Fold this protein.
Amino acid sequence: MKYILIAALAFASLVNINAQDIKLNEPVKTGGISVMEAFAKRQSSSEFSDKELSIQDLSNLLWAANGINRENGKKTAPSAQNSQDIDVYVALPNAVYKFDAQANNLILISEGDYRGLAGGKKDNPLPPSILYIVADASTYKPSAYNSIEHITDMNKVDAGIVSQNISIFCSGMGLGTKPRAQMNHAELKKALKLSDSQTLMLNHPVGYLK
């Protein structure tokens, strides 16, 4: 019985160190360079330091990308018909998470390293984090106006706006990133546990510059 108890405690300890939901910090809404300087410095970056993003920088990044910035629940990125059709998933070295803007946390989706599914040059080391931008067609209210083609077009526009938010934030805060369309859609759909109404649109490697 003693050995069974010891084994049970050891297993419990192992479970506790596994990936779990991450409570993000409150975003800091000041700092960085001016908007015009951020535009002037914006560029695509492919080489990053291997240092992981701090929880504060990650919190600020996700809020800037598509966080809630008003008491009415609307976000930093507009969306057609206020559909709020864009979700941001975060791939870190230990797991992939979904950003919950309302609760300001990261919901664990799958344990494991899914950064490599975004592609990129094989001889480049993996960036410390990758943001996957996902559009959900089911958030649109059914109407004669909302044809499949129209919803698809709006998904693309809304994903592009979130992508630009990420790029300008990184430029203004001294981080590196680049928008990319290349990725392993089939494997990522399984890893991110996407529904049939959800579509991977873009991904952004993000890290500190070398």
In short: Strands lie at 22-23, 86-91, 95-100, 105-111, 129-136, 175-177, 198-208.
